[in-house]
Write a structure and sequence with these properties.
alpha+beta
Length: 288
């Protein structure tokens, strides 16, 4: 898998002055577009679209400083329809406009080319199982929230705090399927998974029951799920679990992620400092 990802990185480098076809990248990496975006984001720490943009503007920056071509020519070469659009994008990455950079020889920001390598560490084995499930439903309270890559998601925190504990306890009684108890569910994420894009967040239970008044229901089709478990201090145990799933488990196993709800169940210790975490992700066998 890592070798295929590195071939995809080479593919990007040869097309920085053209539109990067993510479908072609996925074929090079021998996976789906969705899984490629998920894998790249986990491994690189940024969305694929952001990496392409930063690499493109890194190369464009060298052309700007060289001073041999008009700025509009450079803008058009790298896919910008006007000098103004190019200047805005250039400033967002480099902190200075292209005209000023050329006049002053300003220092620019460089996004290095990425290459993925396997690092063997003495981490403990990951606990997982793969299960086939018939269709089921998630019933609970729903909000549209922004995607946050690092740190707490304040929109989700505020939303959950606003739920009446008594109402949530009544909802808990409807839980009749795995994963048991109250769960957090993220669905309908933007394919780019860029910071600030929105997603549907559900705080509720997995159940066969109808949605009570004031709640929403998410119908989930039958499929295969990879279920990962971990225990440890919060919130580190959750963050490390997400990281290890995409940086260790997927590259080592014949599965790829699928679009669909991502379900997290957390059982905190009595003092709230530690927790058991269980993460459910929809998957398919690679090549299936």
């Amino acid at each position: 898998m890592l070798e295929r990802l590195n071939q995809a990185m080479e593919h990007i480098e040869g097309r920085l002055d053209r539109v990067v076809d993510v479908a072609a990248l996925a074929r090079t990496a021998a996976t789906s577009e969705y899984h490629l975006r998920r894998m790249f984001s986990a491994l690189a720490g940024m969305p694929l679209s952001e990496y392409v943009r930063r690499r493109r503007l890194t190369v464009a920056g060298a052309d700007v400083l060289a001073g041999r071509e008009p700025l509009l020519e450079i803008a058009v070469r790298y896919g910008y329809g006007s000098a103004e659009a190019f200047a805005r994008a250039f400033r967002a990455v480099h902190g200075v406009g292209p005209g000023e950079a050329r006049r002053t020889g300003a220092a620019l920001v460089s996004q290095p080319r990425l290459a993925f390598r396997l690092t063997v560490e003495g981490s403990s084995s990951m606990r997982y199982r793969v299960v086939d499930r018939p269709d089921f439903g998630v019933v609970g309270f729903k909000a549209r929230v922004p995607l946050v890559h690092l740190g707490p998601n304040q929109a989700i925190i505020d939303f959950v705090r606003g739920i009446d504990p008594g109402v949530l306890e009544n909802l808990r009684d409807l839980s009749d399927q795995e994963p048991q108890g109250v769960v957090s569910v993220c669905d309908d994420l933007d394919p780019s998974r860029a910071e600030g894009t929105e997603l549907d967040y559900y705080h509720g239970v997995v159940t066969s029951a109808a949605a009570p008044e004031g709640t929403a229901r998410l119908d989930v089709p039958a499929g295969t799920w990879a279920v990962f478990t971990a225990s440890g201090p919060v919130p580190e145990v959750i963050q490390i679990l997400w990281r290890d799933v995409f940086t260790e488990w997927f590259p080592a196993n014949p599965y790829r992620s699928l679009p669909g709800p991502e379900i997290l169940r957390i059982r905190p210790s009595p003092d709230g400092t530690e927790a058991d975490a269980e993460l459910w992700l929809p998957v398919e066998r690679a090549g299936g």
